[in-house]
Design a protein that fits this description.
heterodimer, A: mainly alpha, two-stranded antiparallel ribbon, 13 helices, B: MetI-like fold, about 0% strand, elongated
């Protein structure tokens, strides 16, 4: 196990290094950031000077080396637009994103588990077929479009929920969070529902498939033969074993939620890191894009590592080498 | 392959006699999916004949006709079934023309991904060694990131354009093919018929193309079908964010973006109908894809 951890850890570092190279290469192709820095009426001399300060007069290799050593020292550069450290910008906006991502994840789990168990236990019933068709619709619709439809119905027409923005927040452990006040929570609902639909649909299908697989096993037949109550068989014996493979999709789920948060946040003007990324792309704010990518890569790599370790710990049949 | 079989009945007749066709005609969802896809293809190909207006010919637009609601609402006219947008453009006509771009991107990106991915998978699986390690490592790293995010970041570097969207989609799409084909190739490589071909002195590239490839194609059909839908959705997302297709070639996603700007004034039809169309066509593709997966994947039977 220890050897496995070391091996995975080295892999993590390797992946992050590759990502840093890719990010650097891509950013080198996105045009010259000098013009973001200098005033419009700058002289050629001033432009030259700005290029020197940014290090753009050096070779790409030297530039990459500087980029990498800066990253390792925790210096991610300053935003061209906000004139403050890019990492700080990300960290300020992270709680807002985590809030909708986690709420969406909880909503998806709470709805998908019972529906998935039902559809897996009684696959022939009309209700199960309807659920499967519904989940296919959920996978097929563009999430951002659903968000717009929700805004139109619940914010513009019914005026039940606010259409955009984050509303009041309260500070806990240095993080600004919305869900603590009713008004803040009201702002959270539509974005979280929008974000959760795709994940909900996929989760339900996975749980259904796992349940159908598990319910075929001998120990389920045995539990039924022994006269255990149906509910007990389904949830205690069935669901418990069906949920284990779900751990492996946790990383993917989180990744998708964070990726789709860029769209959801854009629609609801939700001040998270996704909207920051989209805004930075519009503005050509290169340092912020770089930090976003490195941060998200770091997050995914760590989460995938934890998922693998957790899976190896929970299921002893998985051989870790 | 038909050329290898002398006196074979026509391909269509052989297909209709197959188990796949038999089950297809008995699956309501497969038929529904096929009808949706067929309808969409007809709509896309017959495009200009279905609409009275060419929404991109400025001379045909009349600003006085702007903001007309769908025909069944008050103020709507039969001339514009689904209403008009800010510039007096017929929403239905925009959808017909936008669908062409969406479907073209979905199909072309799928073909590109399949070609590149399958080639890399065949090579990696057949030759193994360092090349295999490098290709699969790249695939592993890429798979730990969501496709939408990779495509979004690539597009931010490329700028807008149909060709650039295609490159971005192929960059994220090849991985699934490479993995599947590599796995299947590894399995087929050790089979007797490949060994026999080797012994008979056939060069490697011929073994790959004539013997291995036909036997690893089946799972690709399922992936390819579903991927067209996925690509249509990703393209819509990119265009919605303004980093996809240019404004001169609006896809369904860009139509939604246009409509989003006026949604708060209650003009819902400009954005809702293009979204409904995306949903309908991707739903049809997924229905057919699910059916094919159940049929062609013997593991699940």
């Amino acid at each position: 196990m220890f050897g496995y951890l070391i091996k995975r850890f080295i892999q993590m570092i390797f992946v992050l290094w590759i990502v840093s190279v890719l990010v650097f290469v891509m950013m080198s192709f996105t045009g010259d950031p000098t013009y973001m820095m200098v005033p419009l009426d700058a002289t050629d001399e001033q432009i030259e000077q700005a290029r020197r300060i940014l290090g753009l007069d050096q070779s790409h290799l030297v530039q990459y080396w500087r980029f990498l050593t800066n990253l390792l020292q925790g210096d991610f550069g300053r935003s061209f637009v906000f004139r403050q450290p890019a990492l700080q910008l990300i960290m300020e906006r992270l709680p807002a994103t985590l809030e909708i991502v986690f709420l969406a994840m909880i909503m998806a789990l709470v709805v998908a588990i019972p529906l998935g168990v039902y559809a897996g236990a009684y696959p022939q019933r009309a209700g199960s077929r309807a659920l499967m068709a519904g989940s296919l619709v959920g996978i097929s619709l563009p999430g951002f479009w659903l968000g717009m439809v929700l805004i139109f119905i619940f914010a513009v027409k019914l005026q039940m929920f606010p259409s955009s923005g984050r509303g009041p927040t309260e500070v806990i452990w240095g993080m600004r969070l919305s869900f603590l006040s009713w008004e803040g929570f009201r702002h959270l609902i539509l974005p979280a529902v929008t974000l959760s639909i795709g994940t909900l649909a996929i989760l339900m299908r996975i749980i259904r498939a796992e349940m159908m697989e598990v319910l075929r096993q001998d120990y389920i037949k045995f539990a039924r033969a022994k006269g255990a109550a149906n509910r007990f068989v389904l949830f205690k014996h069935g669901l418990k074993n069906a949920l284990i493979p779900l751990i492996t999709v946790f990383g993917l789920m989180l990744g998708d939620l964070i990726a789709f948060a860029t769209l959801t946040e854009t629609i609801f003007a939700w001040p998270g890191i996704g909207k920051l990324l989209v805004d930075s792309i519009y503005r050509g704010d290169r340092p912020v894009i770089v930090v976003y990518l490195m941060f998200v890569a770091f997050l995914f790599v760590v989460v995938n590592f934890l998922v693998d370790v957790a899976y190896a710990l929970i299921d002893p049949r998985i051989k870790v080498t | 392959m038909a050329t290898n079989m002398p006196a074979a009945p026509s391909a269509l007749r052989r297909f209709m006699a197959s188990e796949l066709a038999h089950n297809w005609l008995r699956s309501a969802s497969a038929i529904a999916g096929s009808i949706i896809i067929l309808g969409f293809v007809v709509m896309v190909t017959a495009g200009p004949y279905l609409t009275a207006q060419n929404p991109y010919d400025v001379r045909q637009l009349d600003i006085m006709e702007a903001f007309k609601p769908p025909m069944w609402l008050e103020g709507g006219t039969g001339q514009y079934i689904l209403g008009t947008d800010q510039q007096g453009r017929d929403v239905w006509a925009s959808i017909v023309y936008g669908s062409r771009i969406s479907l073209f991107i979905g199909l072309a990106a799928m073909l590109g991904s399949a070609l590149i991915g399958a080639t890399l998978g065949l090579v990696a699986g057949f030759y193994g060694g360092r090349l295999d390690t490098v290709i699969m490592r790249i695939a592993d790293i890429q798979l730990s990131f969501p496709s939408v995010l990779i495509a979004l970041v690539l597009m931010s570097a490329f700028g807008t354009g149909v060709d650039k969207v295609l490159i971005a989609l192929v960059s994220v799409g090849w991985v699934v093919y490479a993995r599947t084909v590599r796995g299947a190739t590894l399995r087929e490589k050790s089979r007797e018929y490949v060994q026999a071909a080797r012994v008979s002195g056939l060069p490697n590239h011929k073994i790959i193309l004539k013997h291995v490839l036909p036997n690893v194609l089946t799972p690709l059909i399922v992936i390819a079908t579903i991927q067209v839908g996925t690509f249509i959705l990703i393209e819509a997302s990119l265009s919605f964010l303004g980093v996809g297709v240019p404004i001169t070639q609006p896809s369904l996603g860009l139509l939604i973006k246009n409509g989003f700007d006026v949604l708060f004034s209650g003009l819902w039809w400009i954005s809702v109908f293009p979204g409904l169309f995306i949903m309908l066509v991707v739903f049809g593709i997924n229905l057919l894809g699910d059916f094919l997966r159940d049929e062609l994947n013997p593991r699940l039977k």
